[in-house]
Design goal:
By secondary structure, this protein is α+β, with helices and mostly antiparallel strands. It is about 35% helix and about 20% strand. The chain is built from 18 helices and 22 strands. Helix 14 packs across helix 18 (about 540-550).
Amino acid sequence: MTSFHDNGVTRGSTESGFVRCHWRSLGQHLLRPSAGGRIALITLLFGALCGCAGLATVDRSGAFVETSVPLSTQTTLGRIAQTSAPSPEVSGFRLMPLGTFSLDTRLQLARRAEATLDVQYYHVENDETGRLLLRALRDAAVRGVRVRLFLDDLYTGGNDALFLALAAHPNVEVRLFNPFCCARESGQLARYATSIGDWSRVNHRMHNKLFIADGAMAVIGGRNIGNEYYLRSMSENFVDVDAFTVGFIVPPLQALFDRYWNSAASYPLSAVATTTLSKTELLARFEEWTGPANTPSPPKLPTNDILGYGPIADDLDAGRLGLIWGDAYVFADHPDKPFEGISGGDLLETSVTYNVLEVVLKAKKEVVASSPYLVPGKGGMNVLRSLRGRNVKVTILTNSLAANDVFIVHAGYSRYREDMLKLGVDLYEMSGARLKANRRPFYFGSSLGRLHAKLVVVDRHLSFIGSMNLDPRSANLNTELGAIVDSPELARELIRIIDIDRLQGAYRVRLSPEDNGLEWLTADDDKEMVLKQEPDSSNLLRLEAWLLGPWIPDELL
């Protein structure tokens, strides 16, 4: 018995969020203007004077409204999912902390789907990984699978032809969330410049990540689609976790997808993007762009990941899934949430953040969290005071200044750091340099590592997995999606992953016993090291964070 509430929370009978957001990217260009940034600023000012036409009107009746196809044992994935579940009321999960396994799982689902693929992402990059997944979607469509791809429009700039080429295939439809009207082949700044009169709309984005195959199996979590999320980037990769899931949780995930797909913020790609290429030319270009010459396959998978799991293909070939089972419910922000919220304002009861904090505030002993962007604000600090006032142990892992890809967010976070430490919060900051030096094969070799996992574990049995960051943008502006799972076994695995990250790749932050400053502690090869300044960062970066920190309001973060 499933109920679907207006607040976007889907509960069962047990009732038991590379976010480089557009304002942050814009702020980086304007606050640190290179020559390109100055040109972009001129473009922004010019766009403010000129503006552009609005979005086309879309007929949202009739065929526009589509619904998901429920699980059927007529499909192989459906039969496997149904026969693997110990009962209809529970959901099964397999955590995927290693990006290579996570990418392979998505590809395996796309290659084995027989009926439907519903795919929803904040960012699909036009790189080897993005094109590889798009080709897998195309191949499924050619087999007769209905493919629905739903993208936030922030990072599609310059890539309309690629997505139009995918949509030119039969059985494929691509829609955009809250699209930009103009300058579509330009970068983010130009698109904002020509939408300056529509700022209150385009300032809000869909940050959800969801992949559903045949109404039977899904992937949720924090990863977008791009090289850096799957250990394929030579310069930087993200430390992240998502989950493969089946069972009771999947139909509610389908309902949430449909809600976005049919929402007022959803626009068919063809109503927004144009091209001079004919359909034949688009199909030929897609074949070229996604063919082996431009889109090499990823390397062969290791035998096991860090949790001891093998590739999901082994289970699918055997026809039986080895998963962790528990009670779970999913929730997503209402697709209209962005147009109601103000960053830093009161939390809407319909928000993912509100629902997660409801669970956190019920903690009796311990809260363990991982968030790449941590800006607690007044509301978050009140939550921490409530927890610590009841002697609940709180451990948080976030990015250090050097590992954070948006330094102004770190500047905002640093305003709250000492207060969190004074409350007794155990605070850890991810170090890209420590990750590079780590000799474990599942880390990053010579590439820079950044934290991207959005996880919360409460009292060692309730776990949040999703797309939500612990910051004002996730709380009030972006839409997010996530799940709460009641399973001690899953909670143990999540804590193990967070512990590996913080012990092998992070500094512990503490108040200096000698003065009012901070210290960063690490122990490598049994040698303890104490640093008195932000680790791995340049003097210039520390100066910029120190100068800007007091002046950047939480509302911009």
